[in-house]
Amino acid sequence: MYMQKIPLEDRIYKLAEDGRMKFIEIESVDASAKSLAASSSAAPQSTDTVWSPLVSTGFTYCCWLRQHHPIKDGSQNSLFVFDISSPPVKKSTDGSGSFPYGSSGHDFFSFWYDVTNQRFCVLTSSNSRGDPTCFPISPLPAGVWHHVQLSYQAPKRSMLGRKAVLTLFIDGRPVESEAKVDAFNLPPTARVHIGVPNPVLASSGIVRGNLPLWDLGPALLVSTVLGLRDATA
Q1: Burial of 81 (0-12, 13-18, 19+ CB in 10 A)
Q2: What are phi and psi of 139, to 5 degrees?
Q3: SS (H, E, C) 179-230
Q4: Residue closest to 68 by CA, chosen among 211, 177, 204, 184
Q5: pLDDT tens digits in sequence order for the chain, 233 residues long
Q6: Label partner for 9 (CA 20 to 30 A): which of 73, 95, 193, 207?
Q7: pTM for the whole thing?
């Protein structure tokens, strides 16, 4: 009962302090952006309060990763490769310090590798059903470094509810099919997590299982859409 009263985010930090978990947190994706007033979260977001790559240029995230050991017992395991979410601007009504999944107080984009099913998955807060969009099966042998490149192509008319296109390259090769997700909005002060999901997604029950050990090599986030030539460079 004691641990249930502690917000999940605080528990994650505690595990990191104890050396039981390692992750990267970047407080603001755009360090030059001004902090948004708490009152602005209830108002509709304009293009001035949305991280511009989401509505104009798109973005690409690249990284090198290596899983330590293969999973042999069939248990659910996930590698959280990239997660960007809106910063906490207010407390939840239940006093837990976190928002329930699907609430208007928190927006996110999460990208992870489902080790058990050998596929990459994406979920955004725009998906009210909480069903991840998954790419085709892409085995990543443990103990080997792999290069992952994910490109987000912003919809041309986001105000009309168009879909954003996701393109994935693994070790310089494009995955067979693209994925489409509902467009989502995040402020320039959005936080980035690598190694763990954002607290709202972690407490939603949508993603379950263990967080196996893995290594992160060089990582890059740019506000442009990179393609095949860049993945093989």
Answers
A1: buried
A2: -60, 135
A3: EEEECCCCCCCCEEEECCCCHHHHCCCCCCCECCCEEEEEEEEECCCCCHHH
A4: 211
A5: 333 444 555 666 666 666 666 778 888 888 666 544 433 444 444 445 888 888 888 999 999 999 988 887 777 889 999 999 988 655 545 444 454 444 555 789 999 999 999 999 999 988 878 889 999 999 999 999 999 999 999 887 655 567 899 999 999 999 988 899 988 888 898 999 999 888 888 877 777 778 888 999 999 999 999 998 898 87
A6: 73
A7: 0.79
